Amino acid sequence: MIKKWSIIVITCPTLSSVRAVETEVKFLKRKGRISEFVPVLCIEDHAKNIGSGAATLNALLVATEFLSVKNNYMVISSDVLLDEDILILHNGRDYLYSCCGKAFIPLPVEYTSNALNGKPSARGILLNFESVLGLIDELSEESPHGVWVCSTDMMIHQGLGKLCVDWKNVSDVLMFTVPSDLEYATGHGVVEVDSEGCIADIYYCASLSQIKNLSHGDEK
């Protein structure tokens, strides 16, 4: 990890998945794949099928509570968010083949990490969770303080070359999107972008007829 996160919050659909993810995080910290100085909180969604929006708000509340205590506030204060870097990761679904969801599925990539801070060198198979962290590290380089939110249910092919963001042109919110087939997009959120590259509208679980006109001509 390159980014020095103030806190990482991982949302989980059930209490059993919380315990499973906590175990995986402990393994990653022992290997030095996650800094031992970064607090990682795994929390259960406060209701079933609440969606990523409500899960994000709940995670942000938990992060604010944690940082308020850490900074010696007597009550919860949003002031702690001004100079912090918060990462919220959604582990949104349980699967029969894995109690940790897609986040901790091994990828066909091998890694080798050098000895660091007295920890022995580690070698193993890269997990999707680690791939997501690496991608966010790359995208967030030189970014201002703020909150980052990402799903761990997708396996994103990063391609070749380094991704660079010109943060001087970012005002308040920056959204990263990936292309998908139209049929797949009907079950997720679709972003409409205007001629200046700004978000014009967001369609959630829209019908095929609603989003067909948003296609780039390649059926995506």
TrEMBL record:
Cited InterPro entries: GDP_fucose_pyrophosphorylase, GHMP_Kinase-Related
TM stretches of this protein: none
Keyword tags: Kinase, Nucleotide-binding, Signal, Transferase
Pfam families, per database record: Fucose_pyrophosphorylase
Protein's UniProt keywords contain Acyltransferase: no
Alphabetized GO MF terms: fucokinase activity; nucleotide binding
Top-level taxonomic group: Eukaryota
Record protein name field: L-fucose kinase
Organism: Stegodyphus mimosarum (African social velvet spider)
Taxon lineage: Eukaryota, Metazoa, Ecdysozoa, Arthropoda, Chelicerata
